[in-house]
Amino acid sequence: MNILTSAINFQLDIEELKIKKYFITFLEEFTQRDDQGQEVRYYINESRRIKENKGTTMVVDIVHVMMHSNHLYEAIINDFYRFEPHLRKGLEEFFFRHTRDLNQNTRQQNMTGGE
Q: Would you give the DSSP letter of residue 43?
């Protein structure tokens, strides 16, 4: 591998990491009105609901992505297979970050006998 190829690969890696970061930001910031008309962080609430129900799949609506960031939307639409592994890792990081407290509470309840 020559220096030019290494530089090109490095540039691609930076773009992929940026998309992952933008995706995590989208998941954390996207809001939607609930039944009471309150703005709620949709994907944060969704991740907690999935964890509480012992689910394994989170569906991300591409229309939500488009409403939040046209740049992220275009990147996903135009180069999905390139970015998919990074989107998946971003979702895993996001999910762990926002359900970690649920894991700790469950562990504490198990150690204290559910008290």
A: H
Q: Cα(first)–Cα(last) distance of the chain, in Å?
A: 60
Which tokens go with 53?
């129900």
| Homologous superfamily of domain range 3-104 | mini-chromosome maintenance (MCM) complex, chain A, domain 1 (3.30.1640.10)
Buried b (16+ CB within 10 A) or exposed e, 49-62: ebbeeeeeeeebee
**Tens of pLDDT along 28-61?**
999 999 899 999 999 999 999 998 999 989 999 9
What distance in Å separates the CA atoms of residue 1 and residue 109, rounded to the nearest whole number? 54
Element (H, E) at 33: strand 31-33
pLDDT (0 to 100) of residue 25: 97
Pairing assessment for the beta strands 31-33 and 39-41 based on DSSP bridges: antiparallel
Indicate the residue type of 56: T
Q: How many CA atoms lie within 13 A of 45 on its CB side?
A: 11
